Amino acid sequence: MNEEQTWLFQAQQGDDEAFTRLVEIYQTPVFNLCYRMLGEPELAEDAAQESFLRVHQNLTRYDLARPFATWLLSITAHYCIDRLRRRKFGLISIEERADDEDNPTEFADPGAINPEEEVERREGQQAIQRVLQHLNSTDRAAIILRYWYDFSEIEIAESLNLTIPAVKSRLHRARRELANCISAETPQPRLERMPYGTPAL
Amino acid sequence: MEHQPFESWLLDDLPLTSEQRRNLRQHTLACAECAALERANFRLRASSMAVPARGFSQRFSARLAGQRRVEQRRAVIGAVFLALAALALLIYNLLPLLPYLVLSPTQIFVLWLNALISLSAAWHSAVTVSEVFGRLALQILPPRVWAAAFLSLGGLLIVWLAALRQDTKPIPLPEEA
Q: Among A75, A129, B20, B166, who pairs with B16 as Cys (CB 3.0-4.6 Å)?
């Protein structure tokens, strides 16, 4: 039994300190998943906390033989999908709606040395965040689990309760959609001649 | 323009050999659609993890404690509500018996005796009323009508019994070949 499994076992016995250690380890992956899904740091923080609470409440049901990260991220992904669906059908609070109207922001990298690179990185991240918002919630979850967590198609299928062909088709569709969005966001050079312009030569 | 197999490689996003990568690069120089797919994959792969603000686990601990307090409060409120409901039900069931609690044993005995006498009197009244009605019926209808009614009822009974016997007669099974 490794350290993580020991903490998990202790947490299952009701040890809150052991669970807090697990929260410390997994806070970034869980927060990142929520942020990529919901697009707002405040909503992501709330969703990540809520996901950990759900995990804590259902810890007795967790099978120690399964990878904890997969189980945790599966609960988080389902929570975010539910939240997005509620948002879609207008079942969210006024505060939440107000947050949604703000522009998405990306966190600064404390390790960044070159400010120009940092700005570029931020812009790139914001662009990715913007195009992710075009996908439907399940496709988005599949893409995030694939690219940020290196989940295999089988793991994504298990996490999102989908079949493997369904995951494959969702990933294909999402990649096409993202490519279209990125192309639309990137200004294309105008190669054709202006119909009424004076020729240079 | 032929997109295959490059499009499939990009949509599946599987690792490519150096030769495949070279071919793909040549194709994407000419094909905007596949270039966009490649760019999307590249951007997704290059994305970093978003990190929460400092003190996430402390905030979670506080939230967990808050949740516990709420659950405890809910449990207490639930227990109080259940106890009150049980008490109300008990009082409701005991209410008819409450007057008996202030009576002496002799008074209770007298009450029971009264109840028995009332029951007996009611029974006698019912018997008397039915006798009176019976006599009245006999006096109103002539004996011929009574005889005809009894005879027709008897005939109907015989017909019914005959029909029953006919219906319940065992049917011989066909012989097996």
A: B20
Q: CB–CB of A179 and B43 under 8 A?
A: no
Q: What residues in chain A have per-residue pLDDT under 50? A: 94-106, 108, 190-191, 201
- Report CB contact under 8 Å: A48, B64: no
Instruction: Kindly report each contact of residues A25-28 with a partner whose C-beta sits within 8 Å and lies 24 or more positions away, as own/partner.
Output: A26/A68, A26/A69, A26/A72, A27/B52, A27/B56, A27/B57, A27/B60, A28/B49, A28/B50, A28/B51, A28/B52
| Contact residues on chain A for B57, CB-CB shorter than 8 A | 20, 23-24, 27
Chain A closest CA to B35's CA: distance in Å? Answer: 9
Matching residue, tokens 């807090």: A20
CB atoms within 10 A of CB A174: 25
> What residues of chain B lie within 8 A of the CB of A124, using their CB?
43, 46-47
User: What are the structure tokens assigned to B137, written together?
Assistant: 């019926």
CA distance B152 to A35: 92
Tens of pLDDT, residues A152-198: 999 999 999 999 999 999 999 999 998 888 888 766 554 455 555 55
Question: pTM above the 0.80 mark?
Answer: no
**ipTM of this complex prediction, to 2 decimal places:** 0.75
B5-14 LR contacts (CB < 8 Å, sep 24+): B6/B31, B6/B34, B7/B33, B7/B34, B7/B37, B10/A175, B10/B34, B10/B37, B10/B38, B10/B41, B11/A171, B11/A172, B11/A175, B11/A176, B11/B37, B12/A172, B13/A146, B13/A171, B13/A175, B13/B41
What percentage of residues in chain B have a pLDDT greater than 90?
42
